Description:
Strand order of the largest sheet: 11-12-18-17-14
Helix content: 10-25%
CATH class of the largest domain: Mainly Beta
Low-confidence stretches: none
Amino acid sequence: MTKRILSIITSLALLAISSILLIVYFAFGGDSSTSTLTLSARNITLKVGQSVYNFYQLSDDNATLSFEVSEENIVDINNERIVGLKAGKLTLFITATTSNQMARDSIEIVVLNSSYSYLITPSQNCEFNDNTLYMTDIFCSFTLEIFDIYGQIVLEPKYNYSSNEEVEFFREFRYFTLVAEKDCMVTLDFYEINFEFSFSVIVV
């Protein structure tokens, strides 16, 4: 009788110890040692100056992230934030690593201009700063490029011009020439694409 009771007690004790070990295993990371590191991200379209947050999902918050882009200077990336710098398209490669695992994903990012934009590049007798054209003679020449929302050049859009002073303004091939004897304000209206802008002219 005593041996039987002792056997029952021993069996109960072993069962209790096994139960405790199972509880400890599952409560203190038994699963985490076998869980797979996962990373997923979504494609992004944003405008210049716009920020996008939380563009990826990661199964382990302690994993280390690294980013690589196919084109530089289009976006600025800081962990959970992407900022559009200029119009363009790129591929973003994301890598997540832990001490023993690695996961990767890639997404496409498209950055758009909020509207049409322009770039004036001086060629002769002028400088262009702060939306002001500084002329060192009564005539100057420069290139003028118009960009659509995708950052693509609009090829030779038709235009009208006006000014608060008497000026001459014309295009020859890819160069524009301005003739002015006084400080003035010039407005260009690219009517086919509904885009208009003005710039100041200072004759120095």
